[in-house]
């Protein structure tokens, strides 16, 4: 306990803990008011500041910020507002005949004091998206955004301090030491988005207090293209999914598994579409952003250098500029299996391609790896699609497109095993920040009232009948 008291964030945590029942007992309309305030902040009051912050952190185009940072949170808010009344209602369930005289229901109650640790790649989206669910469920929240996007973190801190008191929602900026100290506190729930490696650290810290966790992690998301696919459309969509945010997207296609007879056509289409999207010089394009910092730029540049040295074929792109953290959209074939491009989650604008001759090959390859966060299929063959779906495992997926599953709030979003634990978005996000409290109410005398001690032959006969018929 002494260690907790000396924690620099214990004071705010303790005030939120003391305030949790007041917040948890807020009405549907009070929660809507908070969601509306956040919506106005993103849509109107802070929209331009968010755009400028994202440009400062990533050189991210304003349109891309609107599309990938602001829009997903606004749709999350709208979806929550439309459905919150029904989510907050007690959910009636059946009561077995053996418990005659009682009724049963599930009450969704707030978990309490929650921690959201958000990543750098989509800082606004992946901070405020979970926050919408936490507010809808009636929790108090402490937020730790990434130190790698300081401009976005600064704007989010402004928004939070403007809209909420610290005993309800607080945001702390800072380096990794801030996260380490926060993880020592006994939160009721922790929502973490980041790498599997850090996810394990978060889960270990949570286990000390038996805090529940939602872990949105990552991994190498495969994309399969068979020879029945509309290849031009497939290439166009893959380029959009891979090179939006310069590939710094947890559900971006990490690598392509391509039917071998499509290789030449795929390469031609790729070069053509890259030029169409980003012109002859992606570095001067107003539609292409930058790598977040020097560390990640050097990591990705190292992947390209390794590809040049190990016999890989860079068929398009490969140029870099360290002064601007620019890495050109890059397509690579013939990548050795032991290379970092095939072993690490790339999280950047480099797309390796492996070819196959029969569909069992990509199935076996995918299943030899950890379960991915997403798996994409481009095919017109229902038989092939079913075969792939039935013989692989992934957190999410999309057929004949990519990324868009993230935007459907009727779908649960999350990983499986190494790619994550728990689900978010829409009702599933509300559920993640709620405790499903099972409730039963006895209205009249029930059968169990006849079975209390002292036991006798009559009661034994009742038990015998219960075992047989109920």
Overall description:
With 470 residues, the chain is of the alpha/beta class. 44% of the residues lie in helices and 18% in strands. The protein has 17 helices and 18 strands. A seven-stranded mixed beta sheet has the order 10-13-14-9-8-15-16, with helices on both faces. A hairpin with a 4-residue loop joins strand 11 and strand 12. The longest helix is centred in the N-terminal third of the chain and has 27 residues, at 62-88. The radius of gyration is 26 Å and the shape is globular. The mean pLDDT is 97.
Number of helices: 17
The percent of residues in helical segments reads 40-55%
The description of the largest β-sheet is: 7 strands, mixed
Strand order of the largest sheet: 10-13-14-9-8-15-16
What is the total tally of β strands? 18
- The stretches of 5 or more residues where confidence is low (pLDDT under 50) are none
Shape: globular
Backbone structural class? alpha/beta
């Amino acid at each position: 306990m002494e260690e907790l008291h000396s924690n620099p964030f214990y004071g705010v945590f303790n005030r939120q803990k003391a305030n949790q029942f007041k917040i948890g007992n807020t009405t549907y309309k009070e929660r809507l008011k908070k969601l509306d305030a956040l919506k106005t902040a993103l849509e109107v009051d802070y929209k331009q500041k968010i755009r400028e912050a994202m440009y400062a952190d990533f050189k991210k185009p304003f349109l891309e910020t609107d599309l990938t940072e602001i829009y997903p949170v606004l749709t999350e808010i709208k979806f929550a507002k439309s459905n919150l009344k029904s989510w907050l209602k007690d959910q009636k369930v059946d009561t077995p005949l053996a418990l005659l005289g009682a009724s049963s229901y599930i009450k969704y109650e707030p978990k309490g004091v929650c921690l959201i640790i958000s990543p750098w790649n989509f800082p606004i989206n992946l901070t405020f998206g979970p926050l919408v669910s936490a507010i809808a469920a009636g929790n108090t929240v402490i937020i730790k955004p990434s130190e790698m996007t300081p401009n976005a973190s600064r704007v989010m801190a402004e928004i939070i301090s403007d809209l909420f008191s610290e005993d309800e929602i607080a945001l702390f900026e800072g380096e990794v030491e801030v996260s380490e100290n926060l993880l020592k506190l006994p939160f009721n729930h922790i929502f973490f988005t980041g790498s599997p490696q850090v996810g394990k650290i978060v889960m270990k810290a949570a286990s000390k207090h038996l805090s529940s966790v939602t872990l949105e992690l990552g991994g190498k998301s495969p994309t399969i293209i068979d020879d029945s696919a509309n290849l031009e459309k497939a290439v166009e969509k893959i380029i959009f999914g891979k090179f939006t945010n310069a590939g710094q997207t947890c559900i971006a296609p990490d690598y392509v598994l391509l039917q071998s007879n499509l290789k030449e056509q795929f390469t031609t289409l790729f070069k053509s579409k890259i030029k169409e999207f980003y012109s002859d010089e992606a570095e001067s394009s107003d539609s292409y952003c930058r790598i977040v910092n020097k560390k990640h730029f050097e990591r990705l540049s190292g992947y390209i250098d390794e590809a040049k040295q190990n016999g890989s074929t860079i068929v398009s792109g490969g140029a870099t500029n360290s002064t601007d953290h620019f890495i050109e959209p890059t397509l690579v074939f013939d990548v050795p299996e032991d290379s970092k491009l095939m072993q690490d989650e790339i999280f950047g604008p480099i797309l390796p391609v492996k070819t196959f001759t029969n569909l069992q090959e990509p199935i076996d390859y995918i299943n030899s790896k950890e379960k991915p966060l997403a798996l994409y299929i481009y095919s017109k063959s229902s038989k092939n699609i079913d075969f792939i779906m039935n013989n692989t495992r992934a957190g999410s997926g999309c057929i004949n497109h990519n990324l868009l599953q993230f935007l459907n709030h009727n779908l649960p979003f999350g990983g499986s095993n190494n790619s994550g634990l728990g689900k978010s978005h829409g009702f599933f996000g509300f559920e993640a920040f709620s405790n499903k409290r099972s409730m039963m109410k006895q209205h009249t005398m029930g059968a169990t009232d006849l079975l209390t001690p002292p036991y006798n032959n009559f009661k034994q006969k009742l038990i015998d009948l219960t075992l047989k018929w109920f």
